[in-house]
């Protein structure tokens, strides 16, 4: 994964100002300092992956609104595929990759998610098999740990299924609700 992926992915999911990016990344668990982020943003602008447009803030002060260039969209789409393929599901980078996938029109996403789901299903089958073979009166903590892993793997499969299902429905604009088909 490229070190600039978190910045590009966050901008792909929602164009923002650098200070908003910093808050967003930190909230996701991606550690970044203000100086590092601003230096990386300047470098990404210089390399043509990001572009900045000057805007006026609420109080009239100037600020930069960041957007991906076409080259930036291609780069983040390529990196998102790699991240979705390799990162753990609970990784903040995996979450960023999913968030930017729709914005970058990554058509391979459903196939990648199905591949990840089949890997989780294999792990679940192995864990359930080991749980069934372990004695009921055996080591309590070992069994409890295995039961916890089984529950997490089932939850991961359900979550991946819901993500795949959402890909087939258009997003709802903020403040609007879906109407039931009549």
What features would you describe in this structure?
With 182 residues, this protein is mostly helical. It has 2 domains: 5-93, Arc Repressor Mutant, subunit A (Orthogonal Bundle); 107-167. The protein is 63% helix and 8% strand. The protein has helices at residues 5-13, 18-28, 34-46, 70-86, 92-103, 109-133, 140-167; strands at residues 50-56, 62-68. A two-stranded antiparallel ribbon has the order 1-2. Strand 1 and strand 2 (62-68) form a beta hairpin. It is elongated.
Task: List its traits.
two-stranded antiparallel sheet, Arc Repressor Mutant, subunit A, mainly alpha, disordered C terminus, 182 residues
Largest sheet: 2 strands, antiparallel
Order of SSEs, N→C?
Answer: HHHEEHHHH
Q: How many angstroms separate the termini?
A: 46 Å
DSSP E strands, number: 2
In short:
The chain contains 7 helices and 2 strands. By secondary structure, it is mainly alpha-helical.
Fold blueprint:
Blueprint: H1 5-13, H2 18-28, H3 34-46, E1 50-56, E2 62-68, H4 70-86, H5 92-103, H6 109-133, H7 140-167
């Amino acid at each position: 994964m490229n070190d600039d992926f978190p910045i590009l992915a966050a901008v792909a999911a929602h164009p923002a100002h650098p200070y908003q990016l910093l808050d967003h990344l930190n909230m996701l668990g991606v550690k970044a300092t203000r100086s590092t982020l601003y230096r990386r943003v300047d470098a990404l602008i210089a390399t043509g992956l990001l572009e900045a447009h000057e805007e006026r803030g609420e109080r009239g002060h100037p600020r930069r609104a960041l957007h991906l260039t076409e080259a930036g969209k291609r780069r983040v789409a390529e990196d998102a595929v790699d991240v979705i393929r390799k990162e753990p599901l609970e990784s903040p980078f995996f979450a960023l990759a999913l968030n930017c996938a729709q914005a970058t029109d990554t058509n391979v996403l459903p196939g990648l998610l199905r591949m990840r789901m089949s890997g989780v299903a294999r792990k679940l089958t192995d864990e359930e098999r080991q749980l069934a073979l372990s004695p009921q009166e055996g080591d309590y903590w070992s069994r409890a740990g295995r039961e916890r892993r089984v529950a997490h793997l089932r939850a991961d499969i359900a979550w991946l299924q819901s993500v795949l299902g959402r890909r087939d429905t258009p997003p709802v604009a903020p403040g609007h609700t879906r109407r039931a088909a009549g």
